[in-house]
Amino acid sequence: MAEIIKFAQDFGVDTKLYDRFTDYYCHFMSQNHGKSLGVYDETVSLADKETQMNEALLSEVGKLANVSLSKDNALVMSKNPQVKWATFALIDSLIAAVLPVSINENIGKFADMRTIGFGDQARFLVEPQQFFVVSEGTHGERFTFLQKQFKGEKVLEPRLHEVSVTTSMYRVLCGLESLAEFVRRAILSIENNMTAEAWNALEGALDAAEMPAPFVVTGYTPEDLLALCQRVEAYNGGNKPIIYGSSVALSKVLPDGAQGFRMQTPADKMALDIIYDFYGYNVVPLKQIAANDGAYGTVISDDEIYILSSADKPVKGVLQRDMSWQDEFLDNADLTQNAKILASYAFATITNAVAGKLIFA
């Protein structure tokens, strides 16, 4: 965030613009996606906010490019390289300001994000978790079993990702295409991809073939799940683990009436999360992630549940701001331009904690 504030101060961008865009984005996510990312002004409609936000963005583009923008000079200004630079510099700073807040709502349950500067790397220190061997000795023996444990270090370097789109700068400057909507859709697209990559990093580390056999259970009984939770707790120094899974997966785990667990509740109030724990272990449903694979697939398995330590989020992520760009005005025959929205990020499972997996047969 400090980098964004410095950018705004150096180029005279009104910092209130970021507050207004965050308000607009939180309002949109609450109204259209049911996500609560923060408070927003409820006295102004979302449609009015988008109109006002678009006008404010174009005004700041003009200030940043040191030109006067209007519908009357839109055709000329759409060819101005300063206008092109200013537009995408502002887009990048808005994405960098909102994305960390938005993505945390999706992956914050199992991942920690770190924002780094351009060209930087993130280093994560991994403390040893194993017990020391305690051996019997005698008073006539100086040492028994000598041992030493070492700390590990993992370097995580962000990888470049891009969203390639066709735009019409002329229509944007005329107000016929919404710049605010364009930025919002870019954030949503990047956020979905980041969420999928974060989960895949965890799923890869929890591959049953790579995990110690005692921490993988195939087939469900309450006793098996409880034993797995206890084992994970014991080998994480007594830190109580949390049971994670998709709503479908957890529906196979929660107690049912046949086992003597029954409650009455109004039908319109029924929800999976009314049962908060499983024999003392917290149960946390994970929102499903769109695979965006053309086949309407989803990312989180409905046939597995995961027992993760509550002391350390296993997945670590890094996010780095990048500079997007647009090609020249007349490159396409229809006078549209090709643009790239760039973002660099990476995720990996970096933890000293053990985890468990239960696979439904």
What does this structure look like?
- This protein is of the alpha+beta class and 361 residues long.
- Helix content is 36%, strand content 20%.
- The chain contains nine helices and 13 strands.
- The protein has helices spanning 2-11, 16-33, 46-65, 74-77, 81-107, 169-174, 179-205, 222-234, 247-251, and strands spanning 111-116, 122-126, 152-156, 159-167, 216-218, 242-246, 277-278, 281-286, 304-308, 315-321, 325-326, 337-349, 356-359.
- The strands form three sheets. A six-stranded mixed beta sheet has the order 5-13-9-6-8-7. Strands 1, 4, 10, 11 and 12 form a five-stranded mixed beta sheet that branches.
- The chain is elongated and about 90 Å long.
- It starts with a helix and ends with a strand.
